[in-house]
Structures are given as C-alpha cells and as structure tokens.
Amino acid sequence: MATRINKYLSEVGYCSRRVADRLIKEGKVVINGSIPEMGTKVEEGDQIKVDGQRIEKSTQKNIYLAFNKPVGIVCTTDRKVEQNNIIDFIKYPTRIFPIGRLDKPSEGLIFLTNDGDIVNKILRARNNHEKEYIVSVNRPINRDFIQSMSNGVEILETITKNCFVKQLGANKFKIILSQGLNRQIRRMCESLGFRVQSLKRVRIMNIKLDVPIGKYREFTKEELLELNRLLENSSKTFD
What we know:
Elements: E1 3-4, H1 5-11, H2 17-25, E2 29-31, E3 41-42, E4 48-50, E5 53-55, E6 64-69, H3 86-90, E7 97-99, E8 107-113, H4 116-123, E9 131-137, H5 143-151, E10 154-155, E11 158-159, E12 164-167, E13 172-177, H6 184-191, E14 196-204, E15 207-208, E16 216-218, H7 221-230
Parallel strand pairs: 8-14
Antiparallel strand pairs: 1-3, 2-4, 4-5, 6-8, 6-16, 7-8, 9-13, 9-14, 10-11, 12-13, 14-15
Helix pairs in contact: 1-2
C-alpha cells in the first residue's frame, strides 16, 4: 500500500510529519535516487534516504517518554542549527522526537517518542486534548483577569477558546487549554497588559509532570492504555 513520504518518515520514527515536510522542501529526501515532490508516495521496496542515510522500518519497540524540560532548551531535532536542542540534552540512545513544542523560556512536561502515529493524533488541535499550565505574571491579577482569560482573548486575529482558569496566588494562576496557538498563554497575557515571568506545563491529557527538571521517565502501562483510549476518536493522518 502506497504511503505519502512524510507519513512514512513519521511512522518509521525518523521525525515528525512537520519536520519531514521541511526536509523534503530542502531536497534532503531521496526516493530511488530521485528527489521527490511534496506528496510523493512510497511503496514497499522503495529505497529512501535522508541526508544520505538509508531509512528503513525498524523492529524496535515504541518509546514514550515524559520529560521535564528546563528553561533554555529548544524543542527541535535540528542539532546542527540549535546548540541547546532537546535531543542533545536528553542523549537518549535511539532516535526520538518531541511531540509539539514548549518554547525556550518555558519549562515543564513534553512528550518524546518514535511513534509517528501518536504524534499526529495529539498534534491535531481539533482533538481538544487538555494541557495544564502554572503561570506567574509580573503584577497582581484579579477576578476580571481570570474572567477575561477564561472567556477568550483576541490574539493572532482570532478569539481563543473558552478555558478553565483559577487564581493560585497574587500573581499566579492555573490554566487548562484545549488548543495550541503559537505562544498562546504569553500572547493572551500580553493582550491584557500582563507579562509572563514563568510558565510551567504540568499535565498533558492524562499524564502529569512528576520528574525533576531535566529528567525523564517512560510512560507506565496504565498511562499508555488511557492515552490510547483518549486518542481512539482522534483524527488520523491521511494516506
């Protein structure tokens, strides 16, 4: 069965579909000796190379890690461009890649895996998967701030979805999002006249942050079963 090259590279655990698309555009992907166009499909028996490296389906088990990202680490697999990248920091013995992003000034929970299918399901915003954050801002917040953040803020030419927000201290609040706009929480706060001083992600779906900064652990069997249950109705990638 023919599969789009970006999906194939994701499924074999080489990289995410987003990174695969970039590699294809940059001409770093070769199929049977030729540079493919976006959307080219591959079949069993095709010879695929990325940066001269032969890519084949692996028989290794799927890897699922929960990592507590420190401030200053960048969620990219591009080790040549970014010195403080997440892959070099973790030094995991086999190829893995992060699911989604957590910007450089932020810390907290991020998943890493070699399972391209689960990456694509989690990243699709319409699946409404919850992500929970603890945020501190530069000045005291009040009921109006909490209500405004809850009801939606205008950023990036749209209104953010309604979300759960709870005040935890004079300058601190918890927020649970079900969408992932670029730098969403920081932009929401800036729109209301506040500046984020610290931002920590403490939960993604059913998995909570429970390891020290800079450390990771594997998902438990129970966590993976529940995660797959939550993803059962998620949109899958197109062939």
